[in-house]
């Protein structure tokens, strides 16, 4: 094994806002010998997620990454050497293997073994991974939408948002998608089955919501937190549930940006606004993966992947996400 | 009956911010003959509540009061004439009788018949009325505090806040009260059993919370919504519940004032922020009245009343509430 050469992306500085290429460095290294109890993984797919900005920020994050660490990431790979009975050579696994070609890890870093052979393995980083399971868990546990209710999604074409829209639609909800380009609008309607779409860059959001949601919004799944949300919040129905899943439109929280206070809306609409982090819901992860696998097999869950080739595309990938360049789950194939 | 003279307070204009005396007018009128199914009530106690500002505001309120109406208010009075079997002359009742001496009402305007004879009737407008039941219902249903948790209350000495603090204490929580004068601080400690108090006008709230709540705040019962809340929100524990019960420190919501965005706090702390209006919880009203009656009888629920004499003191009373002049439930005795 010691002749294998690893390439990895190391964090070399903390970003002040959105992580940029200069916060990372590509390094070459010999793959170390395995310690007892470790597995050696050959990565095939690396994930790029909006949450990475939070992991890299200094302040109180639930999954901090420090300067000097290999960049934290979910990956799909194959076990090529095992010193434990838990996994065998040849097992396909998804887990915390980092932005690198080879990872020597403990079994606890594996999130799940991939047993389905009828679905592409890369899906376990997107629609069947963090994105899909975030969408399914948060929508079900925090949003609890009922058939006939109106569900609005603020990053409607994104990795999480596109799942939310289709999950809500499968439950019999009316779905309203907010997104930022004509191409994304079209994808939302044609592939992700939204009932209505709004271009937040060119439409009058307030007027559009007045027309499309005359009875208000029952569930608002929010990944943005800025001006888009300010407009949507004005249209909450009585008893609405707002899922705070991301804050993509806020470039920096230090100092905290100001915006319209939400207290009076929450009070008069008896609405609930709640933060969601998937790591709190590990116990139900397999349940929601299964729900999503079944929806994909039934043709009720479409997805898009946006793939770049090679580890060298990783350092710029988080910034591209925040610029909204991608259409679907952002992945890196090795 | 037609010889009885009524005095009433009519709403003559909409306030732009906090209701002021010029928005009201005292009128004299002959008490009308009862229609079939009505009751005639002689009011003894009138309530003054912060919620009245919302009722009088133009925008989308859940209980709007229009120009020309007798000012909406909960009152305690005695049935002096009944044309229905539901109530008898002499019954003590609490309900929506308005700021006036006599009210001809339908039985549906009665919130409850007062049957306890060992407790003062005025309590059914305060600690056993809207305030106490708001505190008990919201704390239980939205806050769900567990023994050992830390509960912070932003209007700690007020009608609702003083009940919240004592209810939380009775459940075995640590209670932190925020209030605005040395006299109120003393009352909070001596009468309302808070474990710690903070003077939001003179103390450094952030530093005080850092010292007094090193593990964060599990339940924040908020009646203020402004700078006090901005400071408290920074100290939420993981899984915190924020009860949005009032917005007393915001003089006007038109246009909506700006403040620090809360999304990132809610996200990283997986916290929940939820609006509460008692009218949604009519079915459980008697349950919480009984809980509070029992706590009073057990000596675990102290209260203060702040009483002025005569209907002419009503028009200025809402403004006095918002200036924080009162110490305890604001009442008018007729």
UniProtKB/TrEMBL annotation, chains A, B:
CDD domains reported in the protein's UniProt record: PGDH
Give one GO molecular function term.
Answer: oxidoreductase activity, acting on the CH-CH group of donors, NAD or NADP as acceptor
Q: Which UniProt keywords apply?
A: Oxidoreductase
Enoyl reductase (ER) domain span:
19-332
Which Pfam families has this protein been placed in? ADH_N_2 (PF16884), ADH_zinc_N (PF00107)
Its domain of life reads Bacteria
Protein name (record): Alcohol dehydrogenase
Q: Which organism is it from?
A: Advenella kashmirensis W13003
């Amino acid at each position: 094994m010691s002749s294998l050469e690893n390439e990895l992306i190391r964090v070399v500085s903390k970003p002040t806002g959105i992580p940029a290429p200069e916060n990372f460095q590509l390094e070459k290294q010999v793959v170390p010998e395995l310690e007892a109890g470790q597995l050696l993984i050959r990565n095939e797919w690396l994930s790029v997620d909006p949450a990475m900005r939070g992991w890299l920020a200094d302040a109180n994050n639930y999954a901090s990454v420090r300067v000097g660490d290999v960049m934290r990431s979910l990956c799909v790979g194959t076990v090529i050497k095992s010193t434990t009975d838990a996994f065998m050579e040849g097992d396909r696994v998804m887990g915390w293997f980092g932005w690198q070609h080879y990872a020597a890890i403990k079994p606890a870093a594996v999130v799940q073994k991939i047993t389905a052979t009828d679905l592409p393995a890369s899906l376990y980083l997107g629609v069947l991974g963090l994105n899909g399971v975030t969408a399914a868990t948060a929508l079900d546990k925090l949003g609890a939408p009922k058939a006939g209710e109106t569900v609005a999604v603020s990053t409607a074409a994104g990795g999480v948002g596109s799942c939310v829209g289709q999950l809500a639609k499968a439950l019999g909800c009316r779905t309203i998608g907010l997104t930022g380009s004509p191409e994304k609008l079209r994808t939302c309607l044609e592939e992700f089955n939204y009932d209505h779409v709004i271009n937040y860059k060119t439409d009058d959001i307030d007027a559009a919501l007045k027309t499309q949601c005359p009875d208000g919004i029952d569930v608002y799944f929010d990944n943005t937190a800025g001006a888009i949300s300010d407009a949507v919040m004005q249209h909450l129905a009585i008893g609405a549930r707002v899922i705070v899943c991301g804050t993509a439109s806020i470039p920096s929280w230090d100092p905290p940006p100001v915006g319209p206070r939400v207290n009076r809306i929450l009070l008069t609409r008896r609405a609930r606004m709640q933060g969601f982090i998937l790591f709190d819901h590990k116990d139900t992860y397999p349940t929601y993966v299964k729900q999503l696998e079944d929806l994909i097999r039934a043709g009720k869950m479409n997805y898009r992947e946006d793939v770049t080739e090679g580890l060298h595309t990783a350092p710029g990938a988080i910034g591209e996400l925040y610029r909204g360049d991608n259409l679907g789950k952002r992945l890196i194939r090795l």
